[in-house]
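user: can you give me the structure for this one chain? tokens are fine.
assistant: on it. calling the predictor now.
[tool input]
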Amino acid sequence: MKVVRAEHAGVCYGVERALDMVRDAMDGDEDVFTIGPLIHNPRVVAQLKDHGVESIEGPADVDHGIVVLRTHGVEPSVVEELDERGLSSIDATCPHVSRAQKAAADFAAQGMTVLVIGRASHPEVRGICAHAAGSAVVVADASEIPADIAGPVGIVVQTTENKSKLDEVVADLRGRGIEPVVKNTICSATRKRQDAAADLADKVDALVVIGGKNSSNTTHLFEICRAHCSRSYHIETEDEIDPAWFDGVEAVGVTAGASTPDEQIEAVVARIESL
């Protein structure tokens, strides 16, 4: 059985940057904490915890040490509270997320309705909405756009979203006579991984997507792969692999979300090749 890796897969610049920041902080003498999980990869978060890096809910949970802001970003009120409590902090927010936050703030300052495309419960989206200072409306797709929405509308997109959802939202608004101002904040790494996954899914008999079940970008990768290849499977570790998945399979593809380090991908590839 041939194993083919996607051209673009695995950990992205924003995640690697955040991990480097935490590792540098760990080299010091102070305790290190993260606001929520640093990234949406349970195995990596567990490894950080094994090295003493604790995940906390908010600034009120600590009174010392260095607090790292997660890659998904935080609400402005969190930064203010850290300052008020005199706590040292490191901003590991992905630069693409920071750009989305700024776009939301700019649209709100112009008096626009800020339409955020993404998962309302996701920490990145919550942070983007907070930067819009109450002017944000969150939709998962075009079907959730409020019937009474009125212009002017500025669109910001969760960085890990699928561009097709953005296109559908824009088309829907234009159909209502609203010409939105669009800030396409889907990160380039996400687009490359999605395009590479779709291309690979058309060429293999089965496909394995590696990444946290709580990872938005990995979930979208899996959705894309499943649309092109019905025998697609989303796993976090090699231990989840079922040999029966590959009955009659000649070529199996492997891709991974932007929070998945190379060693996790290699472990999955090795497991498949051993079958």
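assistant: here you go. The first strand starts at residue 2 and ends at 5. The chain has three domains: 2-10+189-273, 13-94, 96-186.
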